[in-house]
Structure formats: structure tokens, C-alpha cells
Write a structure and sequence with these properties.
The protein is mostly helical and 114 residues long. It has helices at 2-27, 36-42, 44-49, 59-76, 83-112. The protein is elongated and about 55 Å long.
Amino acid sequence: MRDKSQTSLQKIGHVMRKQLTYNALEEGKLLPMSHDLATWRQGEGAADFGMTRTFAELVKPEEQIKRHVDVALTAATQDELNEELILAEMTALEEQSDKLLALFDQIVEEKHAR
């Protein structure tokens, strides 16, 4: 139960950061990048799930999400708004977000399948 709660909190944090990104896009403002997931992944997450094969796979979507957020927010703060670029980056962000959320479920399942 604790493992599922822990990953659920990470999911909620991720969704909240995504919402902040959408708000920043609407306002045309940059958003300080959060390192909460990396901190969890290197600390408590590694201690609890580091033995799973899937745990290491969290890095790629996390990095891709950060890149897509950065590109979209930078585009949103330019004088000439590039809506196509922003839409493409946010679509790609959502795809990586889906992967990240699924990986959280997989690490719990993998840990308890042992």
C-alpha cells in the first residue's frame, strides 16, 4: 500500500507541474523548472524501487518532458507567437507524460511481482 501511495504522490506532483506549465503558457511567462521528481528518483524512489528494471526508465520521459516544457514556454514568451511549435511541443509532452505515469504503475507492479 505504501508503494502505491508513494507513486501516486509523484503522479499528482507531475500533473500539478503540468497544469502550472499550461498556466504559464497562457500568461506567456517562463516557469522555474522543478526538480522534485529527480530528487525523489535519486533518494526515496531509488531506495524503494531502484531494484526494479523499470525504475531506470523514468529518466527518459522525465528529461523529454523538461525539454518540451522549455521549448514551449520559450516559444510562448517570444514577440512572435509560434502556435504550431507550442502545440507540437505540448502534444509531445502529453505523450511523454502518459509514458511516465504508466511507468509509475509498472515499478510498483514489478516490485510486488518478486
